[in-house]
Amino acid sequence: MFPLLNDFARIPLCGLIAQYNHGGEAFPGPDRLPTVMRDILSKSLTLRGFIQREFIDQRPDFYRDVAQWIASGSLRYREDIVDGLDNAPEAFIGLLKGRNFGKLIVRVANEPA
Description:
Oligomer: single chain
CATH topology of the largest domain: Rossmann fold
Strand order of the largest sheet: 1-2
CATH class of the largest domain: Alpha Beta
CATH superfamily of the largest domain: NAD(P)-binding Rossmann-like Domain
Low-confidence stretches: none
Number of domains: 2
């Protein structure tokens, strides 16, 4: 990733899904932090972590703007749709393993009683 970044690039950081199954333990393998820090320093990068709730007050503006962008075609998105609640566990495991692309949705149909 770092070789592709321009000098002074800004990198937003959100989510730790790749670490959910590690229980806070160190990842196996070499410590890459010194190399990462060298790359951050040599390219004068800015990294900023954020959590969605920090921007909750901007939600109405976001909904308005995104709806316009989707309608105009300037914003496109992908959904990975899995049918049936029975397939949800496998879909969730696939999500954690990076098998899906886009937003993962489990579609559950209402059936008459």
